[in-house]
Design a protein that fits this description.
heterodimer; A: alpha/beta; Diaminopimelate Epimerase, Chain A, domain 1; 5-stranded mixed β-sheet; elongated; B: alpha+beta; 10-stranded mixed β-sheet
Amino acid sequence: MACKIKKLLCTALAAVMTAACMIFPSYADGYAASVIDVSDAITMDDEMELRGQLMNAANDLGCNIGISFVDELYGEDITDYADRQMEDIFGSDSASVYLVVKGDCDEATLVLGGSAKDRYSSLKDDILVQIMADMKDRSVIDGAYKLPILLGAVPYEYTEQPSVPSYSVVIDDEADALTTEQQQELSGLLIQAAYNAQCHIGIIIDDDLDGKQSGKAADDFLDHHFGKDSDAIVMLLTTDPDSFDWISFSGLGTELYSGHIQSIFDAVYEELDRSGYFAALVGFCDYFGVDVSDVELPSAEKFMVVIMDYDDSLTAQEQNMLLPTLEKTAASAQCNIGVVITDDLGGKSSKQYADDFADDSFGYGSNYILLLLDNDTQYDYISSYGRGTDIVNGKTDPMLAEIQGDLKEYGYYEAVNTFCVVIDNADDIGDDYYYDYDDDYSYTYEGDIDRFIFEWAMPLGFAALIAFIVTSGFRRGYTKRKPVSARTYMDSTRTRFTHRSDVFIREYTTSHKISRSSSGGGRSGGGGRSRSGRGGGGRRR
Amino acid sequence: MDIQTVTYQCPNCNAALEYNSTQNGFRCLYCDSRFSEEDIKKHFSENEQMKLEQADPELTEEQQAQEEFTGASALYNCPNCGAGVICGELEASVRCHFCHTPVILSGRLSGEFKPDLIIPFATTKELAEQAFKEYTKGKFLLPGGFKRNAKVVEISALYVPYWLKSGVVKANATADAKKIRSWRSGDTRYTNTKVYRVERAADMTFIRVPCDGSKRIDDSLMESIEPFNYQGIKPFSMSYLSGCAAEKYDVGLDEAAKRIDQRIEQAANEVLKQDMTGYNSITITHSHMDYQKKTAVYALLPVWFLNYTFNGKDYPFVMNGQTGNRFGILPVSKIKAALFGTGIFAVLTAVFKLGGMLLGL
């Protein structure tokens, strides 16, 4: 009975501690360390110190590290137990190393998860042998201390290893462009990139530098996190319209990579435009030789479609019928598509509401086109970002004109369909197409009057005016008399000026403001592009 | 009514003499004898003087009424063949319609109508016809077949009556002038304007400013073939009229002087305004002109006239009989003008569109 109670209590304690580690694992900049001592194999002080060392090691190595000391497995295979613990604490497929020690090292196992398998599979057995030897020869805690050391080297026989240089990775995502999971995964990859590059790596994602220059912001970040003379690379990605993307280097980073700024940005931008910030930073890691083949990137085909009708303007059936059309449009436009209908902007402007709704729905920095039908102020708006802006830029007014026209005549369902059509035919907006309403809602866009005036009426008008003036000039030459001035008959030798007077009367000064045209930014130093990203336009019904 | 007439007859064969502009002399139409101006003056001067003094007799009321009724034409007897020929009111030198003898109607050139000066013709009829052809060359808006179908009424030499006014003019003008300076500071453009009152006064001498004394001849047409070279002006002699048509004036000096004064005032203002230098804009607010000395003479100046009709409309062509300056009013084909304009329109449209495409607009 006492044994059963003890068994129950141990199981409960293990469960509670496992749960505690699952809920409150120790994180070090994205990697976790876990120490579970169910069997009281080590003291509390040793446990805390060990946990600290494992945290540092997790950060340095770019993988989670956990150790469990158990005295009873209750018939479960130790390896299965270890796998289960690792999965419960660190999650499946994450880069993890987990050691389970039973009793006084009667039995032990080392399991690997995620990318740690690739790195340590061949070393696992040796590491385990070494640890068990130390635990038996010295103490359990000494053996435990050996785990992080052995993971950082490739020893076949334990010897005093020279200190492994440690590199730091700092991700500062002010713009919330990355999810927590993405940050964790990136931390591991960036650590590897840091080791490959032999530099600390810093990543800043910010949408507002508060007037600070990109270079200064990146340099300050580098100095603050890694030190002035450290070997470091810091990349700043910003959508602040007054700033540029930037890469700062110091120490070895300057020596090795300052001549490769363009290549690094190319690797980043290729993925950024297509799949967002996570993919862009994976591309960054790939550039520095990290194996990213196992990293799951957002698929280009997977775009979100959102219909939000707060004003009950569409029936549920209509919303369901619109979804396939919106999905088709999203696939062809290669960006997220959203429609929101509301009669309450909550005090925001149409633009603010649409931009915020899109960021909340699709995530900041994602490619999207969103239509806001505002039944409150009657000021409809099309918001866009990235690739969506490329599609609708400069065309939101004629697009909204079409949409509002159909809204007025046919209702909300047709208006949303028209939204899809104008996006599908965005390239043709401004051309002389007919508006042809087919049963399958495939129709093209009618010519824009403004564009007609600019492309045809103005050149024709100028040509006609000049032709008229020239022809009239020729005609006048056939009939115009050219009377001779009487100055011909003036004897200039006998012309004498008798009076000359120039009297100053008054003086006045006027001023007027010169309207400036907006000037685009340029590159300087280690800068990348200036990406405004956000676009859109509104129109009153 | 009978008009006093004069003919210049060849001292050798008594046939009619004609003034030859290229030789600055006279030629007999029959025996081709040549005589210099001095010869003719010497031979005919007494006659000439006597004839010029023989003004036409005053008309009775009945004759006046008759003249008004008939359009003021007159009948004369050709001194060569005796034929009775009717001539226009203003004609002073004609040819007999029957024997082509040049006849000078001396009665119409006497008294107040006696010219003071004359510039003899220095260009020939052939030259005038050639000038007309050259004038129409290259004029691609002329209607098709114009040169072929235009009926050229015979080009004729005519001594046109002119008033020539000379004088010393005291002109003054007042103007508002501005000096404008503009500069930029930051994103603001400043414009400073200084206003001045400018006055100029000058004495100017104008010599023989012409105005034609014929109502039927367009003043601006005549002004287009000016100036005449007064180096070649001579005291009037009827002999120069032999072979050329001439008219007496029907625009009096007072009326002609108004036009001349207008031209002089315009010229004087131009001179004064030109002296107002250093300003960005000048606006004459007041001008005035006074004659200190003025004289006027009546002269006959040579002009070749050609009138051609095309599609029922008359188009005049005139050439200065002394200098060769020419001017004519030409018809314009509407179709050709439309095609020309369309061509320019098409080319410019292509240029604008191509330019827009190249600029990526």
